[in-house]
Structures are given as C-alpha cells and as structure tokens.
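thought: fold this chain, then report.
action: predict
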Amino acid sequence: QTGVAGLTGARAWAPEADYDRITDQYYIYWADPSAGPIYYNTSKDLQTVSAPAVYFDPGYQVIDSNIVKDGDTYYMSFKDERSSGKRMKFAKSKSLEPNSWEIYTPDFVTGMNSEGPFVYQDFNTGKWVMYWDFFYGATNERFGYSFTDDLASGVWDYQGTNPNMPSTDVRHGGVVAVTQKELDAII
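observation:
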C-alpha cells in the first residue's frame, strides 16, 4: 500500500501479529528493508487490514521485531541494522500502541551478525529464552540462544549455539505452545 514516505510496498519482512484486548484488534507488525522503522497494520478479523503506519522508529534502520508480554509490560526484541549493530536490542511498553516503545537495553544483547529473534518463556523453568539466527557465515550453526530470569533487566546469559536446531535452509523461528494431545497428534 502507499501513503507512508519511503515505503515501497514491495516487501514485508518478518511479519508477526499480536491481539490487543484493549482495542479489540490485531497489530500486524513488520519491516520493509528499503525503509527505517517497524511498520504496522491493524485488523479486527485478519481478513481486512488498515493502511500501513509507523509502529516503532528509534531513528535508525531496524528489522525483525518480536513482542512478548510479562506482567503488565510488553517487550520487543528487534535487530539494529546499522553497521555498528547487526544485532539485537530490546524496547518496552505498557501497551501495544504504536510509538509507545522505549529502548531500555543500552548495549546489544547478542553478538554481531544476528537477526530474527524470537523470545518465549519456558513453562518448566520460568526462564525466558531468546533464539536468533546467525547470518553471513558467522558460525556453522544457524541459531544462537540465551536465557534470562528477568526480561526487565535486559541482561541475557549467552548459551552458545543450539545443535538440536536445523542448520541449513532454516531462518527465523518461533515457538507455539501445544497440549500433550496436540503434540501426540503431530508426532
């Protein structure tokens, strides 16, 4: 779609969506590699969507955002695309509202050549887990991962690479919670 300066409409990278109970709509957020910020559309039914608008703009190129909620706070991991970056930072907000995000990690939380973060809470340990892709041959493994006990701290304990993840032709993962019955059916 048109209407946003610099947005070509040619691509929507790493789209994700979250439902906002307060506004009774989905926020579909994504990046365009030809432009700087994270964009969004809203939808009530996931059939029709609003025109795109700016969702999060730290003043430099960002892509690959992922949002999780802990307590009353939302946490967004994202990739800083600057040449000094090419790795992840975090922002937080009390809502899913556009332009409500504040970067709270002064330093990067992953090493160079990382992208495509996804964060989830381990049901067994309560720890938060973040996986990300390595790109440009940064390692023979494709995914790195870290743990934290406290998302608000912004401090992640790097665990290395995960040898149990696919290592070829797989990029940008995600986690979906399933019941034991659903898992049995999948297997």
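thought: worth noting. The mean pLDDT is 88.
final: tokens above.
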